[in-house]
Amino acid sequence: MDNISKTYEPQKFEREIYETWERDKNFHTTADRDGAPYCIVIPPPNVTGQLHMGHALDETLQDILIRYHRMKGDNTLWMPGTDHAGIATQAKVEESLRKEGTNRYELGREKFLERVWQWKEKFGNRISYQLRTLGSSCDWERERFTMDAGCSAAVRKVFVTLYNEGLIYRGTRITNWCPKCNTALSDIEVEHEDEAGHLWHLRYPFADGTGYVEVATTRPETMLGDTGVAVHPDDERYKNLVGKTLILPLVNREIPLFADSYVDKSFGTGAVKVTPAHDPNDYEMGLRHNLEQIKVIDNLGKMIDVGKYTGLDRYECRKQIVADLEAGGFLVKVENHNHAVGHCSRCHTTVEPLVSEQWFVKMETLAKPAIEAVKTGAIKFVPERFTKIYINWLENIRDWCISRQLWWGHQIPAWYCDDCGKMTVSETDVDECPHCHGKNLRRDEDVLDTWFSSALWPFSTLGYPEETAELKKYYPTSVLVTGYDIIFFWVVRMVMMGLKFRGEVPFKHVFIHGLVRDELGRKMTKSLGNGIDPVEIIDTYGADSLRFTLVTGNTPGNDMRFFRAKVEASRNFANKIWNASRFLLMNLDGFDATFKPAREDLELADKWILQRLAYRINAVTENLDKFELGEAARQLYEFIWFEYCDYYIELTKARLYGDNQRAKATALFVLTTVLEAALRLLHPFMPFLTEVIRQKLPSATGSIMLAKFPTVEELGDLLDKDKAIADAAKLILNVVKAVRNIKTEVGIDSRKKTRVVLKASDAANQKNLSDNARYLTELAAADPIEFADEKPAHALSAVVDGAEIFLPLEGLIDTEKEIARLTKERDKLQKFIASTSAKLSNEKFVGKAPANVVQAEREKLAASEEKLTALDGRIAQLKSL
RNA sequence: GGGGUUGUAGCUCAGAUGGUUAGAGUGCCUCGUUGACAUCGAGGAGGUCACAGAUUCGAGUUCUGUCAGCCCCACCA
Asked: How long is the CA A303 to C1' B37 vector, in angstroms?
């Protein structure tokens, strides 16, 4: 036997074990291998930085599913990789440039991209290291990156195809613009937040001097770009005024008063100033009424072409405009007004709607099949409630702005000819205009939204656009594991692209998890400084402890709170397993490992633990198949700690320390068999611990991660399914608990040997107790044990289903207290009997409830009445003393 | 404005298809180092399952409403 330390010390073996697995290529598979395909593509972590606790959860869930299926014999592939995360990574690198006192424009595009690639190398490696630390069994030989050659080829092919089919188009539109990131954004990259703002009421005079119209606005600075004022066509207040001309204050531009049913009569004054160049609604109205678009805010959020305001920041300009309006007598009043304001999801700057030329994906035709796929069940969400969120979003989708004015990303494959002015979109680079054969071509400088390449991830990683063996074998993948926060960003787009380009859904299940929050339930963020580094947790408690913590104590799809006390509990569980194994190994030392007991060698305890094992195998398997990973983990916790350690190990000690070699060998065999199976069941959750222990067991060969996942069938003859075994065990354990209880109530050490007198309720129970009396001695220090028909008067007592228990403890018995204790017990029982018999005398219950339920109630009642009689007799006896 | 979700022991949370005398971890109290484990063992206290109705023989579990918290979506200036 190896020396095995007294406590669980994961730092001593986790790294080495992972290296062994990787060296032995245990993570690797090939398409031609046997087994049903099981494939997960990793949600590629952003190369912006290192992994956080949310990633640790995501990867743990995936690794559990992957390891489970690999052990089940499936041809299992976990595709790893990382995402270039265009805007996010670029922002990080720009920030570090700022610290060096330079910027990307000074560096130039080429040099800047070199810097980003260096960044990518650094954090990409860090992420791989973290994934390994966590125990992730991904196929590293297949690691991918959203900007590698293969993914780039996929992006080009998809872009060109969609363009040729008219599903990608270029157009001038009003889009969300981040003045700080200096790029367009898609709708979902804008986060709306309620802000306390103001509603300014302004007077716009009529050109003919007949008075004025009062408008209300939350953004007075945009008035510089106003080209009209709109009212509702049915608004009586304005009906006769529509068509008149107004003079825009400060600017003195003539603008029309017109009617549009978009306007809400009940809001503000019922009159809206219209700024087509800087508000999406006004933009639409502007189109309907042929209004001029006057751009007064530039890409950086500064005012342009507006006289004395030119060059001012938009908020600075607001102050001045308000002051000038007030001075001119145009400001009527200012009200407080809360409203939703859009912010850039990356840098939190207030988004500025701007008119610009961008590339879009037409969503409607792509969205329809994506909705169908979920409605028909081709894709199933777990938990199911996310289906609704997904469908609802897709049914209200708008075109997707995919161009970004960034440098880091997939550059758009479009070229403009300076000679003929025509555009060419091509999969391969273009150096000659196909229209005029001119050579003066400029490539579109924009890059694609990072989610464009992510959308192709399930098939680009499997080889697309090549028709590879992997693509044939593993697509559609089995399950996508991700957080609910990126359903819109990523899941829907993968489904759309998968259906469009493969004709099949990209995955059959979407397993959604929640966020990992801090101890107080707050999001872990950099600004709060409340993030916990998974690697730090792993260093102190081990990866297995972290994994177990992340997967237990919450329900799929719900957020979880993370704190160290939880990890400590998991670590203690690991330590428990460690020590149970240590106990076994110490006893196994020098013993014949090839011994196999006959069925007759097994005693009650053995049969019982094997029954429990069979039960847990089923429970764990069923729960894993339902994605109830936490429940599966809980089953194992209970089995190992409460059944295997608390009872079974204790019940083998007499045999292990006794002289009967065959009995000892039998106990060791069952101990080993059950532990080994439990380790395999637990392996997906705690891969390192289970590997290191199993390798020390004499029976095991090879890595546990390639061993078969336990089945009830493998127990074969050892498993005795007789229900009498469970009943017998239940009686014994109930007596054990009762004896222990009495002892501690009167202050006797539960391990101090005490004489116990038993009175069984019938012959079967009597036999059971006497056959297994040794167990009572081992678990409750009942010694000697006697059987009697009479109730000893001077004794402490208890009643369980099937037996009365007496502890004749002369000198320790306070009769009054004993009566009180038993009376309390009696009253509780009486209450239960009252409610149960009421239930049973209710004809409706007996008539309508299922027969088995009624039968169960009858049995409970009978047992309780028997117990009550015994208790009453006992109390009477004590009172007569 | 629409949608989702949560409200169970001091704290963190489990409790499919309605039927247990409602559970775990942690914390608390009492006791315990005879050879797996004090990262432990034995025992105990602690909950009218947010509130009000409804359905049912029976509801923590289904439905409706109320209150409270959280989240997502949303172009009322």
From this structure: 72
Residue count of chain A:
881
Gyration radius (Cα) of chain A, Å: 37
- A173-187 average pLDDT score: 92
Neighbours of A858 (CB within 10 A): 14
- The mean pLDDT of A223-233, rounded to a whole number, is 92
Which nucleotide in the DNA or RNA is closest to residue A4, CA to C1'? Answer: B36
Strands A507-513 and A380-382: parallel
Backbone φ, ψ for residue A844 (5° rounding): -65, -40
Instruction: Tell me the one-letter amino acid at A843.
Output: E
Per the CB < 8 A criterion, the answer to whether A593 and A419 are in contact is no
What pLDDT does A1 receive?
A: 44
Q: What is the pTM of this model?
A: 0.94
ipTM entry? 0.95
Which nucleotide C1' is nearest A199 CA? B77
Alpha-carbon gap, residue A732 to A800, rounded angstroms: 10
Pick out the nucleotide with least CA–C1' distance to A574.
Answer: B39
Does residue A209 surpass a pLDDT of 70? yes
CA–C1' nearest nucleotide, residue A647: B41
Residue type, A276: P
Rounded Cα–Cα distance for residues A350 and A353 (Å): 10
In sequence order, the β-bridge partners of residue A46 are: A83
The C-alpha atoms of residue A813 and residue A747 are separated, in whole angstroms, by 11
Is beta strand A477-483 parallel, antiparallel or unpaired with respect to A447-448? unpaired
Query: CB count, 10 Å around CB of A69?
Result: 25
Q: Residue A596 and residue A654: Cα distance in Å, rounded?
A: 19
Name the nucleotide with the smallest C1'–CA separation from A555.
B14
Which residue places its CA closest to the C1' of nucleotide B44?
A: A745
Distance A616 CA to B26 C1' (A): 25
Distance CA A259 to C1' B62 in A: 51
A701-722, pLDDT tens digit by residue?
A: 899 999 999 999 999 999 999 9
Q: What is the pLDDT of residues A259-273, one digit of tens each?
A: 998 998 888 888 999
Q: How far, in Å, is the CA of A716 from the C1' of nucleotide B36?
A: 29
Name the residue closest to the C1' of B12 by its CA.
Answer: A561
Tokens of A532: 């916990």
Q: How far apart are CA A482 and CA A486, in angstroms?
A: 7
Quickly give A823 CA vs B77 C1' distance in Å: 75
Please name the residues in contact with A472: beta carbons below 8 A apart, sequence gap of 6 or more: A31
Alpha-carbon span A106 to A566, nearest angstrom:
50
* Rounded Cα gap, residues A642 and A62, in angstroms: 28
Please list the residues that pair with A2 across neighbouring strands.
none
What are the structure tokens assigned to A755, written together?
């004489």
Minimum-distance residue to B42 (CA–C1'): A750
Q: Work out whether strand A782-787 and strand A754-760 pair parallel, antiparallel, or are unpaired.
A: parallel
Q: Give the nearest nucleotide to A657, CA to C1'.
A: B35
Q: How far is the CA of A858 from the C1' of B57 (A)?
A: 15
Identify the H or E element spanning A665: helix A661-682
Residues 6+ positions from A33 with CB-CB distance below 8 Å: A75
A780 CA to B30 C1' in angstroms comes to 18
Spacing of A615 CA from B59 C1' in Å = 29
A514 CA – B56 C1', rounded, Å = 35
Q: Work out the average pLDDT over A620-645.
A: 94
CA A869 to chain centre: 53
Nucleotides in chain B near protein beta carbons (<7 Å): 3-6, 12-15, 19-21, 24-26, 30-32, 34-44, 56-58, 72-77
Residue A199: in which H helix or E strand, if any? strand A190-205
Residue nearest to nucleotide B19 (CA to C1'): A853
CB A417 within 8 A of CB A440: yes
